[in-house]
């Protein structure tokens, strides 16, 4: 019971957080109750009309009352349906905004743990389940209880024996229906989970479709997705089999109830115990009793789905957000960035990627991080960005631990040009100004593009700055993506500039142009350069050579050539092809 109670509390809390319109819900409930009242009154009007016909006269007032009740019931039902749909859409939108805001504030390690598709499923399908229960199903429960209670009272007043006969017929049917409905609840939850897993697989595959095709892994990914699709199909077939059994059972129960009431009622009419109008009303009330029972069964199933969805959403909302948002904003002046005995291991792993790292990045200088793949260079950049926190030691900026600085203000000091130069869906202008506060006129954007060597190809695009870029910038070359990322840095004007293989995707001519632009951009900043091509770091003020998470050498290029055999060997290997090509 405690687990069920906890789920209900979580569900109620989520509904309150979404703040659905109480006025609209109240009006929808009132309209639904008016429709239910009219539905309850309809058989009594039918009884009166049948009795009047039996007496040889039909009053115009009875016909008018019947028409008024039917019209009122239809209008009230339409108003209720619209208000419920409006409230439901608002509730879903509020929950989705809440979840998207939460997801964007969560730290990077949480995204390393779960599938992207599973999180997308939380935002989409789970919110729908909660909305359906909080609006339509809740009002259906209210009207169902009203219809059922009202029908029972009226039926007992009309004839107790026929009422007991009717409920005996329906009880037998629902004794079979309820266990089957409970099976549907479990199948619905299983289908939700499998669909979330399929969404995760597809999101990953489609985002890396070039990798899939480059390695001819289409068959492998199709098989992996096919297994989930097959499981969803099997769950759907089991659900269909149960539904296929439920519908005839309910239909047979109603038919049997009609026949029993018709035969038994006819006997009571012939004996004079009841009139024909009473029998007619009983036959109509059968549907007023059966419909609420079906609604109650549906409510139970939707309640279980919504409880499961609310538990998953509540778990997500309870996850920690990125820390360090509090604190005083530091004065906007360049400072020294230093790693002091920093060690780090990724969450869930015991092996440390960095061990006792000591680094210093000074303003107005260029510091290079060099080493083989897996030596820890990218991890150092992630720690600077505060995507992760050190396991030991601390990172300080201008004498203050960066963990104590406001996170948004800290990241606002950093400009990061990544190797892949990611592009977001939107226009060229949107991408150059991405993440920047304030308005930037076209003159500023074009000037930044020119300094990054991007103006020429932007002017050749169909709509210039307003040209739309598709997901991941697949309608741009690698060099074009890189230059748009560099143009963004000219507008961002960061204190700390991180260049992670920033010119790796450029041809020789473009690389020369961009390198000139980067030199202007790097002036007066704290520059951190990561490169595999050692020719790009030869003029750095300081080079740190990393091996297996440790610093094995520090110095300028000429110093490391004489003191670090591994560095000298790498330089020799990389320079030799260039010399061969030069003298070839």
UniProtKB/TrEMBL annotation:
Organism (species): Pseudoduganella violacea
Domain ABC transmembrane type-1 per the UniProt entry, residue ranges: 27-305
Chain ranges of the ABC transporter domain: 337-573
GO MF annotation, one: ATP binding
Name of the protein this chain belongs to: ATP-binding cassette subfamily B protein AbcA/BmrA
TM regions (residue ranges): 62-85, 139-158, 164-184, 248-267, 273-294
Keyword line: ATP-binding, Cell membrane, Lipid transport, Membrane, Nucleotide-binding, Translocase, Transmembrane, Transmembrane helix, Transport
Gene Ontology biological process terms, A to Z: lipid transport
InterPro entries, alphabetized: AAA+_ATPase, ABC1_TM_dom, ABC1_TM_sf, ABC_transporter-like_ATP-bd, ABC_transporter-like_CS, P-loop_NTPase, Type_1_exporter
Main location: membrane
Compartment list: Cell membrane
Membrane topology of the entry: Multi-pass membrane protein
GO cellular component, one term: plasma membrane
Stretches assigned to coiled coil: none
